[in-house]
Amino acid sequence: MLAFNDGKITIHGKCARALSRWNSLLPFFLRLKALRSACINDKRGADVETQRNVLGGLLEICCDSPQTGFFRTGKCETGPRDGGAHVVCAQLNRKFLDFTRSRGNDLSTPRPESGFPGLRPGDRWCLCALRWKEALEAGVAPPVVLTASHEAALRYVSIEVLNQHAIDGQNRIDKPEPDQ
To answer: Which residues contact 108 (CB under 8 A, 6 or more apart)?
Structure first.
């Protein structure tokens, strides 16, 4: 029971016992939350708050429906376990989906047993940097979202090439005009 006396709240009976139990459990829940956060960062192999995009800013979400990224967080985050370097955020098109299927990676077919809905043209997805580069060389590279592509993509493809394939309206890195 709650009672109000002279601007103070007094708790009696069951409420007091429940509050007392909650207060004793609160440190446990706070430690559990901190442990969960540390485990997630450890699994990813990097501090997720500081992962950067190819423009040097904080990494933005590529797509959260369907959930993309090696860690299925919606971001093209990477870490030691991401052997494929899923770091290029691309807006998929039919040409690329057909190309990647022909290379043995069918992204279009739903796989409900693994929670994969299948992708359609227009969906955004974190692609392996080498697959995107292979598609580039074949002339079918899909457009990229620079703010959502991880800086690790620059190990495989130059910023100039990514710039050429950036979705319109993005903050591109333009080369300065040469002095005359």
So the answer is: 97, 101, 118, 119, 120
pTM: 0.69
DSSP alpha helix (H) spans, the chain: 13-44, 94-102, 129-137, 159-164
**Cα dihedral sign, 171-160-140-51:** negative
First to last CA, the chain: 81
- pLDDT tens figures, 49-97: 689 999 999 999 999 888 899 999 999 999 999 999 999 999 999 999 9
Please, which residues have CB within 8 angstroms of residue 117's CB and are 6 or more apart in sequence? Answer: 66, 110
- Taking CA atoms, 84 is separated from 69, 79, 167, in Å, by 11, 10, 23
